[in-house]
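Protocol step 4 of 6: structure prediction from sequence.
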Amino acid sequence: MKLEHRDGIFECLRCGIQFLGNLAVGNGACKDDIWNMSFPDLLLQLLSVDDEKAVSYTSMVIHTCLDEAKVEKLAEQHNIQLAFRVMELCRTEPDLDWTVLIATQHFLKSSTLVERMHSRMSHLERITLLELILAQLKEEDSEECDILPSVARFLASSFQKGCGAVLTLATSSASSNEALQEALTVIILLDVLCEMTSDRRQFMFLQDHPDLLVTTVELLEQVHAVGKASKNVFSAAQNFSSFTPGGDSSSCSPVISFKAHLIRLIGNLCHSNTNNQNKVRELEGLPLILDNCNIDSNNPFISQWAIFTIRNLLEHNKQNQEQVAALEQRGTADYSALRELGFQVERRDGSLLLKTVRKDT
Protein backbone atom coordinates (compact mmCIF):
# COMPACT_ATOMS: atom_id res chain seq x y z
CA MET A 1 0.00 0.00 0.00
CA LYS A 2 2.80 2.44 0.91
CA LEU A 3 4.56 1.78 -2.39
CA GLU A 4 1.34 2.33 -4.35
CA HIS A 5 0.63 5.55 -2.42
CA ARG A 6 4.14 6.83 -3.09
CA ASP A 7 3.88 5.97 -6.78
CA GLY A 8 0.54 7.78 -6.98
CA ILE A 9 2.04 10.94 -5.50
CA PHE A 10 4.79 11.04 -8.11
CA GLU A 11 2.50 10.10 -11.01
CA CYS A 12 1.04 13.61 -11.21
CA LEU A 13 4.52 15.11 -11.05
CA ARG A 14 5.74 12.86 -13.85
CA CYS A 15 2.77 13.73 -16.06
CA GLY A 16 3.29 17.45 -15.46
CA ILE A 17 6.99 17.27 -16.35
CA GLN A 18 6.29 15.19 -19.46
CA PHE A 19 3.66 17.71 -20.54
CA LEU A 20 6.23 20.52 -20.28
CA GLY A 21 8.70 18.49 -22.30
CA ASN A 22 6.14 17.84 -25.03
CA LEU A 23 5.27 21.54 -25.18
CA ALA A 24 8.94 22.48 -25.59
CA VAL A 25 9.69 20.18 -28.53
CA GLY A 26 9.99 22.26 -31.69
CA ASN A 27 8.59 25.38 -30.02
CA GLY A 28 11.19 28.03 -29.27
CA ALA A 29 8.81 30.31 -27.42
CA CYS A 30 7.68 27.52 -25.08
CA LYS A 31 11.29 26.51 -24.46
CA ASP A 32 12.14 30.02 -23.35
CA ASP A 33 9.02 30.36 -21.18
CA ILE A 34 9.61 27.03 -19.44
CA TRP A 35 13.26 27.87 -18.89
CA ASN A 36 12.60 31.38 -17.55
CA MET A 37 10.00 30.13 -15.06
CA SER A 38 11.90 27.09 -13.80
CA PHE A 39 15.62 27.95 -14.05
CA PRO A 40 17.55 27.27 -11.92
CA ASP A 41 15.77 26.52 -8.62
CA LEU A 42 12.76 24.50 -9.76
CA LEU A 43 14.83 22.41 -12.17
CA LEU A 44 17.38 21.74 -9.43
CA GLN A 45 14.60 20.64 -7.07
CA LEU A 46 13.08 18.34 -9.67
CA LEU A 47 16.47 16.74 -10.36
CA SER A 48 16.72 15.99 -6.64
CA VAL A 49 13.36 14.26 -6.06
CA ASP A 50 13.40 10.64 -4.98
CA ASP A 51 11.86 9.30 -8.16
CA GLU A 52 13.91 8.03 -11.07
CA LYS A 53 11.27 8.68 -13.72
CA ALA A 54 10.66 12.25 -12.57
CA VAL A 55 14.40 12.91 -12.67
CA SER A 56 14.62 11.38 -16.14
CA TYR A 57 11.73 13.48 -17.45
CA THR A 58 13.24 16.62 -15.92
CA SER A 59 16.53 15.85 -17.65
CA MET A 60 14.63 15.51 -20.92
CA VAL A 61 13.08 18.96 -20.40
CA ILE A 62 16.49 20.51 -19.66
CA HIS A 63 18.04 18.90 -22.73
CA THR A 64 15.18 20.10 -24.93
CA CYS A 65 15.32 23.68 -23.66
CA LEU A 66 19.06 24.20 -23.61
CA ASP A 67 20.87 26.27 -26.20
CA GLU A 68 24.22 28.05 -26.34
CA ALA A 69 23.04 31.14 -24.46
CA LYS A 70 21.39 29.09 -21.71
CA VAL A 71 24.53 27.00 -21.25
CA GLU A 72 26.54 30.19 -20.71
CA LYS A 73 24.01 31.25 -18.05
CA LEU A 74 24.58 27.89 -16.37
CA ALA A 75 28.24 28.80 -15.96
CA GLU A 76 27.41 31.77 -13.75
CA GLN A 77 28.25 31.45 -10.07
CA HIS A 78 24.65 31.39 -8.78
CA ASN A 79 23.45 28.90 -11.43
CA ILE A 80 26.28 26.39 -11.68
CA GLN A 81 24.82 24.06 -9.03
CA LEU A 82 22.35 22.83 -11.64
CA ALA A 83 25.27 21.79 -13.86
CA PHE A 84 26.92 20.03 -10.91
CA ARG A 85 23.71 18.11 -10.20
CA VAL A 86 23.59 16.94 -13.83
CA MET A 87 27.21 15.79 -13.57
CA GLU A 88 26.49 14.01 -10.27
CA LEU A 89 23.68 12.09 -11.95
CA CYS A 90 26.05 11.16 -14.80
CA ARG A 91 28.29 9.56 -12.16
CA THR A 92 25.67 7.97 -9.88
CA GLU A 93 23.04 7.09 -12.52
CA PRO A 94 25.07 6.24 -15.65
CA ASP A 95 22.05 4.58 -17.31
CA LEU A 96 20.16 7.89 -17.28
CA ASP A 97 20.69 8.81 -20.93
CA TRP A 98 19.34 12.36 -20.80
CA THR A 99 21.93 13.64 -18.32
CA VAL A 100 24.75 12.15 -20.39
CA LEU A 101 23.32 13.86 -23.48
CA ILE A 102 23.11 17.18 -21.62
CA ALA A 103 26.77 16.91 -20.67
CA THR A 104 28.11 15.75 -24.03
CA GLN A 105 25.87 17.74 -26.38
CA HIS A 106 25.72 21.00 -24.41
CA PHE A 107 28.21 21.30 -21.54
CA LEU A 108 31.25 20.30 -23.58
CA LYS A 109 30.49 23.07 -26.08
CA SER A 110 31.19 25.72 -23.44
CA SER A 111 34.80 26.18 -22.39
CA THR A 112 33.68 28.61 -19.68
CA LEU A 113 31.39 26.03 -18.08
CA VAL A 114 33.92 23.20 -18.40
CA GLU A 115 36.68 25.28 -16.80
CA ARG A 116 34.51 26.53 -13.95
CA MET A 117 33.12 23.09 -13.19
CA HIS A 118 36.59 21.52 -13.35
CA SER A 119 38.05 24.10 -10.94
CA ARG A 120 35.38 23.38 -8.31
CA MET A 121 35.09 19.63 -8.75
CA SER A 122 36.53 16.94 -6.53
CA HIS A 123 38.95 14.51 -8.19
CA LEU A 124 36.17 11.91 -8.40
CA GLU A 125 33.87 14.40 -10.14
CA ARG A 126 36.65 15.35 -12.55
CA ILE A 127 37.09 11.70 -13.46
CA THR A 128 33.41 11.55 -14.48
CA LEU A 129 33.77 14.68 -16.64
CA LEU A 130 36.93 13.34 -18.31
CA GLU A 131 35.37 9.92 -18.93
CA LEU A 132 32.49 11.61 -20.74
CA ILE A 133 34.95 13.57 -22.88
CA LEU A 134 36.90 10.40 -23.63
CA ALA A 135 33.72 8.53 -24.60
CA GLN A 136 32.75 11.41 -26.88
CA LEU A 137 36.13 11.25 -28.61
CA LYS A 138 35.93 7.48 -29.06
CA GLU A 139 32.49 7.50 -30.66
CA GLU A 140 32.48 5.77 -34.02
CA ASP A 141 32.62 7.95 -37.14
CA SER A 142 33.27 11.08 -35.09
CA GLU A 143 36.19 12.64 -36.97
CA GLU A 144 34.79 16.03 -36.04
CA CYS A 145 33.44 16.24 -32.49
CA ASP A 146 31.78 19.10 -30.64
CA ILE A 147 34.60 19.64 -28.14
CA LEU A 148 35.97 23.15 -28.58
CA PRO A 149 39.67 23.90 -29.21
CA SER A 150 39.63 26.07 -26.07
CA VAL A 151 38.51 23.05 -24.02
CA ALA A 152 41.34 20.99 -25.53
CA ARG A 153 43.87 23.69 -24.60
CA PHE A 154 42.48 23.84 -21.07
CA LEU A 155 42.78 20.06 -20.66
CA ALA A 156 46.36 20.11 -21.97
CA SER A 157 47.28 22.83 -19.47
CA SER A 158 45.54 20.89 -16.67
CA PHE A 159 47.63 17.83 -17.53
CA GLN A 160 50.82 19.89 -17.41
CA LYS A 161 49.94 21.42 -14.05
CA GLY A 162 48.82 18.25 -12.31
CA CYS A 163 50.77 15.41 -13.94
CA GLY A 164 53.30 15.15 -11.12
CA ALA A 165 50.56 13.78 -8.85
CA VAL A 166 50.81 10.39 -10.52
CA LEU A 167 54.35 9.93 -9.17
CA THR A 168 53.04 9.79 -5.60
CA LEU A 169 51.65 6.33 -6.35
CA ALA A 170 55.18 4.96 -6.28
CA THR A 171 55.21 5.23 -2.48
CA SER A 172 53.09 3.11 -0.14
CA SER A 173 52.24 6.22 1.88
CA ALA A 174 50.25 7.55 -1.07
CA SER A 175 47.71 4.73 -1.07
CA SER A 176 44.77 6.86 0.09
CA ASN A 177 41.67 7.19 -2.06
CA GLU A 178 42.34 10.91 -2.46
CA ALA A 179 45.84 10.32 -3.83
CA LEU A 180 44.60 7.56 -6.12
CA GLN A 181 41.75 9.68 -7.47
CA GLU A 182 44.09 12.60 -8.11
CA ALA A 183 46.43 10.29 -10.00
CA LEU A 184 43.51 8.81 -11.95
CA THR A 185 42.54 12.28 -13.19
CA VAL A 186 46.06 12.59 -14.63
CA ILE A 187 45.83 9.14 -16.21
CA ILE A 188 42.48 9.89 -17.87
CA LEU A 189 43.69 13.34 -18.96
CA LEU A 190 46.55 11.58 -20.72
CA ASP A 191 44.11 9.20 -22.43
CA VAL A 192 42.04 12.19 -23.59
CA LEU A 193 45.11 13.93 -25.03
CA CYS A 194 46.16 10.72 -26.81
CA GLU A 195 42.74 10.47 -28.46
CA MET A 196 42.68 14.15 -29.38
CA THR A 197 46.07 13.97 -31.11
CA SER A 198 45.43 10.67 -32.91
CA ASP A 199 45.27 12.12 -36.42
CA ARG A 200 42.35 14.42 -35.58
CA ARG A 201 42.95 17.55 -37.61
CA GLN A 202 40.82 19.74 -35.36
CA PHE A 203 43.14 19.09 -32.40
CA MET A 204 46.55 18.90 -34.06
CA PHE A 205 47.29 22.45 -32.88
CA LEU A 206 48.16 20.69 -29.61
CA GLN A 207 51.47 19.80 -31.26
CA ASP A 208 52.37 23.45 -30.68
CA HIS A 209 50.82 23.79 -27.22
CA PRO A 210 53.53 25.45 -25.07
CA ASP A 211 55.76 22.85 -23.38
CA LEU A 212 53.22 19.99 -23.65
CA LEU A 213 55.81 17.82 -25.40
CA VAL A 214 58.54 18.82 -22.91
CA THR A 215 56.27 17.97 -19.96
CA THR A 216 55.40 14.58 -21.46
CA VAL A 217 59.02 13.60 -22.18
CA GLU A 218 60.18 14.72 -18.73
CA LEU A 219 57.33 12.82 -17.04
CA LEU A 220 58.20 9.67 -19.01
CA GLU A 221 61.81 10.06 -17.85
CA GLN A 222 60.70 10.39 -14.21
CA VAL A 223 58.28 7.47 -14.36
CA HIS A 224 60.89 5.27 -16.04
CA ALA A 225 63.56 6.19 -13.47
CA VAL A 226 61.20 5.66 -10.51
CA GLY A 227 60.19 2.25 -11.86
CA LYS A 228 63.82 1.17 -12.15
CA ALA A 229 64.91 2.56 -8.77
CA SER A 230 62.74 0.21 -6.69
CA LYS A 231 59.83 -2.21 -6.95
CA ASN A 232 56.67 -0.12 -7.33
CA VAL A 233 53.62 0.41 -9.56
CA PHE A 234 55.81 1.88 -12.31
CA SER A 235 58.19 -1.09 -12.44
CA ALA A 236 58.04 -3.36 -15.47
CA ALA A 237 56.33 -6.69 -14.79
CA GLN A 238 55.81 -10.01 -16.49
CA ASN A 239 52.55 -11.02 -14.81
CA PHE A 240 50.03 -11.76 -17.52
CA SER A 241 47.69 -13.91 -15.39
CA SER A 242 45.19 -11.07 -14.97
CA PHE A 243 44.74 -10.91 -18.77
CA THR A 244 43.66 -14.56 -19.04
CA PRO A 245 40.07 -15.77 -18.56
CA GLY A 246 39.43 -16.12 -14.84
CA GLY A 247 42.53 -14.09 -13.99
CA ASP A 248 42.68 -11.86 -10.93
CA SER A 249 42.03 -8.35 -12.23
CA SER A 250 42.66 -6.91 -8.75
CA SER A 251 46.37 -7.54 -9.28
CA CYS A 252 46.48 -5.01 -12.15
CA SER A 253 48.50 -1.88 -11.59
CA PRO A 254 46.48 1.29 -10.90
CA VAL A 255 48.63 2.97 -13.55
CA ILE A 256 48.06 0.33 -16.20
CA SER A 257 49.29 1.53 -19.63
CA PHE A 258 50.32 4.96 -18.28
CA LYS A 259 53.90 4.78 -19.52
CA ALA A 260 52.78 3.32 -22.86
CA HIS A 261 50.36 6.20 -23.33
CA LEU A 262 53.04 8.77 -22.52
CA ILE A 263 55.07 7.28 -25.37
CA ARG A 264 51.98 7.26 -27.59
CA LEU A 265 51.38 10.97 -26.92
CA ILE A 266 55.01 11.78 -27.75
CA GLY A 267 54.59 9.92 -31.04
CA ASN A 268 51.39 11.80 -31.84
CA LEU A 269 52.93 15.18 -31.05
CA CYS A 270 55.94 14.41 -33.28
CA HIS A 271 54.01 13.13 -36.30
CA SER A 272 55.21 15.11 -39.33
CA ASN A 273 56.50 17.83 -37.01
CA THR A 274 60.22 18.51 -37.39
CA ASN A 275 60.42 20.96 -34.51
CA ASN A 276 59.00 18.42 -32.07
CA GLN A 277 61.21 15.64 -33.49
CA ASN A 278 64.23 17.81 -32.77
CA LYS A 279 62.97 18.74 -29.32
CA VAL A 280 62.71 15.08 -28.29
CA ARG A 281 66.31 14.53 -29.43
CA GLU A 282 67.48 17.58 -27.45
CA LEU A 283 65.69 16.22 -24.36
CA GLU A 284 67.51 12.85 -24.75
CA GLY A 285 64.17 11.25 -25.48
CA LEU A 286 65.37 8.86 -28.20
CA PRO A 287 67.34 6.49 -25.94
CA LEU A 288 64.57 6.78 -23.33
CA ILE A 289 61.94 5.53 -25.77
CA LEU A 290 64.24 2.82 -27.16
CA ASP A 291 64.67 1.59 -23.59
CA ASN A 292 60.93 0.93 -23.46
CA CYS A 293 60.70 -1.60 -26.28
CA ASN A 294 60.43 -4.52 -23.89
CA ILE A 295 57.29 -6.46 -23.01
CA ASP A 296 55.66 -5.17 -19.81
CA SER A 297 52.37 -6.52 -18.41
CA ASN A 298 51.78 -3.20 -16.65
CA ASN A 299 51.97 -1.49 -20.05
CA PRO A 300 50.30 -3.64 -22.70
CA PHE A 301 51.42 -2.72 -26.24
CA ILE A 302 54.23 -0.49 -24.95
CA SER A 303 56.58 -2.09 -27.50
CA GLN A 304 54.25 -1.25 -30.35
CA TRP A 305 53.79 2.34 -29.17
CA ALA A 306 57.55 2.72 -28.78
CA ILE A 307 58.10 1.53 -32.34
CA PHE A 308 55.33 3.81 -33.62
CA THR A 309 56.97 6.76 -31.85
CA ILE A 310 60.48 5.91 -33.07
CA ARG A 311 59.10 5.76 -36.60
CA ASN A 312 57.63 9.26 -36.21
CA LEU A 313 60.87 10.57 -34.69
CA LEU A 314 63.09 9.20 -37.47
CA GLU A 315 60.85 10.11 -40.40
CA HIS A 316 62.62 12.64 -42.64
CA ASN A 317 64.90 13.64 -39.77
CA LYS A 318 68.55 12.87 -40.51
CA GLN A 319 69.84 14.18 -37.17
CA ASN A 320 67.58 11.80 -35.25
CA GLN A 321 68.59 8.95 -37.54
CA GLU A 322 72.25 9.73 -36.91
CA GLN A 323 71.75 9.80 -33.14
CA VAL A 324 70.10 6.37 -33.18
CA ALA A 325 72.95 5.09 -35.37
CA ALA A 326 75.46 6.47 -32.87
CA LEU A 327 73.62 4.79 -30.00
CA GLU A 328 73.82 1.51 -31.89
CA GLN A 329 77.54 1.88 -32.55
CA ARG A 330 78.21 2.70 -28.87
CA GLY A 331 76.08 -0.25 -27.83
CA THR A 332 73.87 1.94 -25.66
CA ALA A 333 70.65 0.97 -27.44
CA ASP A 334 69.26 -2.57 -27.34
CA TYR A 335 67.69 -3.51 -30.66
CA SER A 336 66.83 -7.11 -29.73
CA ALA A 337 63.26 -6.13 -28.79
CA LEU A 338 62.83 -4.43 -32.16
CA ARG A 339 64.08 -7.52 -33.96
CA GLU A 340 61.76 -9.79 -31.95
CA LEU A 341 58.83 -7.63 -33.04
CA GLY A 342 59.84 -7.87 -36.68
CA PHE A 343 61.84 -4.67 -37.14
CA GLN A 344 65.47 -3.88 -37.74
CA VAL A 345 67.59 -0.76 -38.01
CA GLU A 346 69.33 -0.52 -41.39
CA ARG A 347 71.68 1.98 -43.00
CA ARG A 348 70.82 3.05 -46.53
CA ASP A 349 72.41 5.89 -48.50
CA GLY A 350 73.79 7.42 -45.35
CA SER A 351 70.44 7.33 -43.54
CA LEU A 352 69.09 5.06 -40.82
CA LEU A 353 65.80 3.30 -41.55
CA LEU A 354 63.47 1.28 -39.37
CA LYS A 355 62.17 -1.49 -41.63
CA THR A 356 60.06 -4.60 -41.21
CA VAL A 357 61.66 -8.01 -41.65
CA ARG A 358 60.36 -11.53 -41.80
CA LYS A 359 60.32 -13.16 -38.37
CA ASP A 360 61.97 -16.32 -39.74
CA THR A 361 65.02 -14.54 -41.21
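Step 5 (inspection) to follow. The beta strands are 343-348, 351-356.
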